[in-house]
């Protein structure tokens, strides 16, 4: 397939996806995500046209080799703990897209990797909690591709390069993770380290030199407080895939806050539209109010 005549390529996104099944909750838990929810609601408006489907790279799915969800009606994967019982009965009934899954598999194979299709894989919360605010009617086909459990930055950048042609086929590629993800260190002591890492990450991915950008991302452990923010880099690897799919393209923060007063959370759009976002409190020098 080729890019529609006179149309911009689909942008790609790295999105901080929030905690657990937050879009299905009420009360204080839901209110904590007010700014993130508003930023996710805004994403369809930013696109040059309606996508044909979405390909999600979730930080909640790892396999020994890149694996692709290929079922027509994906089930749910409740990969969280400690929530009310009804949060294990929710449904996000978006369709899968077996044809797209095959296309993704072909691109990965052509890049030199073995690949597996998994018709049983359901939507984990890195997918459904993010997609619920973006497409609340669950009418957008979704395919997921796993991380490799090696969590090698170079491999995931290369995966993004292999997937880049999908942008010209009106597939929206989203990496779903978190810019800071330490579930043990919670509290005000994390605010400064989290902000320092987020500032480094923004400088790294907004560098217009594609070689410098890729080199910085591959050396992410050299960033300030890198391992404090990411004791394990599963939630950072989807960013590598997205960066690989949009090498050299401008990057715009579309969301940012010091979440709950101690953890930075940022989201980024890669692509031509560089209009600023009203949901980026970090760029504005503000702090979260929740």
Describe the structure.
With 290 residues, this protein is of the alpha/beta class. It has one domain (12-270): 3-Layer(aba) Sandwich (Protocatechuate 4,5-dioxygenase, Chain B), CATH 3.40.830. Helix content is 30%, strand content 18%. It is built from ten helices and eight strands. Helix 2 crosses helix 5 (125-134) and helix 6 (153-163) packs parallel to helix 10 (237-245).
Separation, N- and C-terminal Cα atoms: 45 Å
Following the backbone from N to C, one meets helices and strands in this order, namely EHHHEEHEHEHEHHHHEE
Structural class: alpha/beta
Helix content: 25-40%
The count of strands amounts to 8
What is the approximate shape? globular
Beta-strand residue fraction: 15-25%
Query: Are there runs of 5+ residues with pLDDT below 50, and where?
Result: 1-6, 286-290
Q: CATH homologous superfamily, by name?
A: LigB-like
Instruction: Please describe the biggest sheet, giving its number of strands, its sense, and whether it closes into a barrel.
Output: 6 strands, mixed
Q: Compute the average pLDDT.
A: 92
Any key phrases for this structure?
disordered C terminus, Protocatechuate 4,5-dioxygenase, Chain B, 290 residues, two-stranded parallel ribbon, alpha/beta, 6-stranded mixed beta sheet, disordered N terminus
What layout of secondary structure does this protein have?
Elements (H helix, E strand, L loop, with lengths): L11 E5 L11 H4 L2 H8 L1 H4 L6 E11 L3 E3 L28 H13 L5 E3 L6 H10 L7 E7 L4 H11 L7 E7 L13 H15 L4 H9 L7 H4 L7 H9 L5 E9 L3 E8 L20
Parallel strand pairs: 1-6, 2-5, 2-6, 3-4
Antiparallel strand pairs: 1-8, 7-8
Helix pairs in contact: 2-5, 6-10
